[in-house]
Structure prediction request, 378 residues.
Amino acid sequence: MDIWFQRRALACGLLLLAAGSATAATQGSAGSTSTGSISIGASVPNRVQLSGLTDVAFTNQDPTVAATKAQNVCVWSNSSTRGYNVTASGSGASSAFTLANATLTVPYTVEWAGTSGAPSGTGLSAGAALTGLTSTATNPSCSPGPASSASLIVKIAAADLQSMQAATNYTGTLTLVVAPE
Amino acid sequence: MMSAGTGTVAAVIVKTGSVDGSFRNACSPSHAVASVRCVAPIAMLALCAMLACASPSPAASNKVRVTKLSDVAFGTIANLNADAVLSQSVCMFADTATNGYNISATGSGAGGVFELSSGQTALAFDVAWNSATGQQSGTQLSPNVPLTGQISAATHQTCNTGPATSASLIVRLRSPALASATAGTYNGTLTLVVGPE
Prediction:
């Protein structure tokens, strides 16, 4: 065998070893038609998205009647089960669910339902995840597909309303974190 | 351009009379010298010599070849709200009179659709072709439907000489498909068939 051919064959062999199984692409050969093929791969990571949230405003509440505000939100999860969990944190001390005006505070409660349009749900504890939820959303922003997929309910008990100072604005922030399951 | 594996030679048969009254092919390669020497007038000799000795002109073989294809690996797609696009420059060679070719693509989805799969879950993708190299966009292909009227700039079967590549293959995962896809690893194949024009 020609020494030049041997060297080239050796070089090709080394290249193949270096490449390992790097490619499955097949190259076309010359002819009246030529066919080649490639493999395509992609990985979609676990993702969730919470949207459709609106601010909650309790105004001129009758202190003898518990106040409730429910809203439909969009939670989307792309896990194989569409599962997710939700964790809520308030702006009070240690993330407590409280509204405040200077030193004045009033507690509120937070509930979550894994369905849209629910007037009540499972009570959340600040910083503790509510697990085992499943979303019906098929798109991160619920469009297209169901316009909403869960319910957020905020409540102030009548007793707490009665403890509030009249004509005083109490404000706070509620933060929700969803994660895939 | 690849040198043609086959060529055509202009064949004109000139028959001259022999001493016995029969005719024979005076310009066939095996008889040309003898015929020229023996029988033809000068004009005939000149014509015969031109035809017999002319070198064959190269002609297109109507062969095509697609090479330099690479697998497409998107990896983990962090942003599902934007299209994921990967393009590659390939060698598309067409030995036709116009260097023209057509291309068809088939995916591994049912009926040849462009789909990746993860178990029972599918993820659609788009395929585009551009007859220029280094492009990020092109004409979108439909499964099993030839894209015609393409011209190759390649001058060698595998682009070893001349342009290193001559076309672009673009694979796109659109954000709506990504956003609605179940998390997982998706795989599929894309087959390209080119034909001469």
User: Anything to note?
Assistant: Residues 1-22 of chain A have pLDDT under 50 and may be disordered. The radius of gyration of chain A is 29 Å.
